[in-house]
Structures are given as C-alpha cells and as structure tokens.
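As the work plan foresaw, our protein records have gained a structure token line. A representative record is set out beneath this paragraph:
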Amino acid sequence: MKLWSILLLSLLPLWAQAQEIGERLAPWTLLDQFDQAYSLDSQARFMLVARGMDAAKVVNGALKDKPKDYLQARHGVFVADIQRMPALIAKMFAVPAMRDYPYRVMLDREGRVASRYPAAEDKVLWLQLQDGQLVSRQEFATVEQLKAALENVRP
C-alpha cells in the first residue's frame, strides 16, 4: 500500500501540468539556437514539441527543405526538449548544428516547458492553439505525416 501511495504522489505533478482542451497555456520564455528569447503568446497558432531525438528528427525532416521563415510565417513554434543531452555535447555539437536549420528551435534545456505537454518521446506533439488556448492535440510519428499537416496551415 505504501508503494502505491508513493507512486500516486510522484505522478501528481504530471497531472497538474497536463493541458486539457480549452485551457489557456501558461506563458513561458525559452532561448532558441541563437540565444534569442522567444515568449509564447496568443499569436501562436500551433506548437510542435519534440521530447526525444527521434521526434526532433521528424521535425527536421519535415522542415529542412522549407523556406527560412516557413514555420514563423504560419505562427508555429517548435520546442525541443534537450534536458537529457549532456551539456558539453549540446554546447559543442548539437546547438551549433541547429544554427544551420532554416527554422527556430526553442531549446528547453531544463525540461521545464516540454514537461507540461506529455507525449511519446518518439513522436512529435502538435498542439493547435487559438488565442492562447489549446484547441486540439495530435501526435505524428513520420516526416510524411507532419509535412501533410504543415501543408494544411496557411500563413
């Protein structure tokens, strides 16, 4: 019984942070790969969240051949959870490589933002937003699926 109590108490923070349809997303600010700050506001129409390397590869595959401001023109935001990446690897290799991407990556170095939006680590979480409120959520496992969804968003 003690084990179940401990398990339940340890999961409470996850439930408290989970976003429900219709809820307003709490504001946050992260730095991108160029150390430029971005704050989530009511102008964002959708947010992509990658909690693992496989999901980040799906986003990169879907956006790598798009024009430089493709995501921003559609009021999209991409958050990459890099908290598990060793700091030295991130600083020396990963973040400099991201500077070649034609899109901004909001880097969640401490996992304080991405953890608010639970999803599978190998899938891209798509949060559809309207005036700062969560309208719907989907997960994409392949580049093709994400590309098709992005094509349906008009600037």
Notes: The first helix runs from residue 2 to 17. Confidence is low (pLDDT under 50) at residues 3-17. The helical segments are 2-17, 53-63, 70-73, 87-98, 143-151.
